[in-house]
Amino acid sequence: MVRSTVIVRASDALPLAASVDDEQTEQALQEHKQQSKLIFRRITPNSEPRCSIESGQYTLHYLISDGVVFLVIADKSYPRKLAFSYLDELSKEFANTYGPRVETVRKPYAFIGFDTFMSKTARLYRDTRTATASSGLDRLNDDLQDVTRIMTKNMEELLWRGDSLDRMSHLSTSLRSESEKYRKAARNINFNAMLRQYAPLGAICLIIIILLYWRFG
């Protein structure tokens, strides 16, 4: 069953539209909606355009199209083919309605009016039997026929990978900082060594100059 949907801009994860969920759904999906925010932050230009991320009794399916991320939270038992067919319909309608304006908006949920289309489409896809029996839904796009090609991940894996990347980033920053400290220390050591090597000679030359100045000045 389709539970909740959110649409964000891929470049900065700005929310563009979302389904209006009742209080019970909002409470039940609170953790998974937080996880969806993590997914949006992990999106990069090299991310898979279609991906399913399993998390407990739900699966978060997302589709990236024209710089926009469409994500639906659905029951784990809900067919992936239907989930991505649903997202595909949303992406096409959204592109036709708001496409040119996506990169210009600055306020979150600028296209909240898209909820009307989302709600209508979600009702068709909400139940598996209803979805497969609805007119037109049995003719899925060719690129959705083989769902095994869609990347599947686990939320724990994503969290671990993100945590590892954060640790690696912190470690890299620390190494750069330590490297800079070592370079400064090396320069100071070399300068002090040079002073110890040439200071006596410089002192002798200075004394000679003073004596010559005193004698012939």
Can you characterise this structure?
Helix content is 54%, strand content 18%. The protein has 217 residues and is an alpha+beta fold. Helix 2 (30-42) packs across helix 6 (155-216) and helix 3 (80-98) runs antiparallel to helix 4. The radius of gyration is 31 Å and the shape is elongated. The protein contains six helices and six strands, in the order E-E-H-H-E-E-E-H-H-H-E-H. The longest helix has 62 residues, at 155-216.
Which structural traits does this protein have?
Longin_dom; alpha+beta; 6 helices; membrane; 217 residues; six-stranded mixed β-sheet; elongated; single chain; Beta-Lactamase
Radius of gyration: 31 Å
Query: N-to-C SSE series?
Result: EEHHEEEHHHEH
Quick one: CATH class of the domain at 2-149? Alpha Beta
Q: What's the architecture of the domain at 2-149, going by CATH?
A: 2-Layer Sandwich
Shape: elongated
> How many β-strand runs?
6
Which superfamily, in CATH terms, is the homologous superfamily of the domain at 2-149? Answer: Longin domain
The quaternary state of the protein chains shown equals single chain
Strand order of the largest sheet: 2-1-5-4-3-6
Report the portion of residues in β strands. 15-25%
